[in-house]
Design goal:
Low-confidence stretches: none
Number of helices: 10
CATH superfamily of the largest domain: 2-enoyl-CoA Hydratase, Chain A, domain 1
Largest sheet: 8 strands, mixed
Helix content: 40-55%
CATH class of the largest domain: Alpha Beta
Strand content: 15-25%
Mean pLDDT: 92
Distance between the termini: 32 Å
Strand order of the largest sheet: 1-2-3-4-5-6-8-11
Structural class: alpha/beta
Order of helices and strands: EEEEHEHEEHEEHHEHEHHHH
CATH architecture of the largest domain: Alpha-Beta Complex
Length: 282
Amino acid sequence: MRGRSGRRGYRTKRSSSTIIPMVDYQFGTISYSVHDGVAELCLNRPEIKNAFNSKMWLEFSSALEIFSSSGDQRVLVITGAGGAFCSGAELTEMVPDTYTPLSWMRGISDIALKLHQLRKPTIAKVRGIAAGAGANLAFGCDLVYAADSAKFSEIFVKRGLSVDFGGSWLLPRMVELHKAKELVFFGDIVTAEKAEQMGLLNRVVADEDLDNVVVEAAEALKNLPPTALSLNKALLNDSLSRSMAGALEAETQAQAVNLSTKDLKEAISAFLEKRTPKFTGE
């Protein structure tokens, strides 16, 4: 499943004494902007709590491709407009007329895999409801920060559906298996506080603090060495499918890559010179 890349527009954003260009990519159902190395993808159908239709799926996929292929975009923040994150798939358009159910769901699964395989860090910024594929979209990001108003639900069974968008893989790795089954079997709504207690979230904050918390996290990630960060992400993502010996071999190969980078030399120089390092990904 592929969509067309959005066209770019430009704005400016003032940062201290300088003006930093902000790039906007023009889509219809999402907004996608980039400022100083941090990309934000905002699901933008607030009238139906940002539920996915076919156009949004295609545009979301295109935005992931833009982020993946850009050397200047180091962190991706995913959020929703109008006080909701994402209520899942729009029920009036479960399968477009030009697809079979199997071919359509394979396309959706390809998007979930594309998100998972991004080499750069992703952050879910969640307000309001995150249900069905919307919940698993949040859980599929590397970090999940939520407002205290956020709510989560694996609602699929209440709609006559089984879990999708990677939920069957993600949930047993995030919580104990019997807790994952409870979430999926009943499809109940879980508060942000309970989701954090279960280990599904990194942090819950007051709604008015969420933007600042995510900005701080994104800025910190943006300034880390890209190669080392990418390799660390891959090592952790693949860890549960490896033996100890396999994990050690993967670590060995990853560290060998790091030892040959300019960023390692920069880190050492900055430490010795007592200054902030500037990493380039080289």
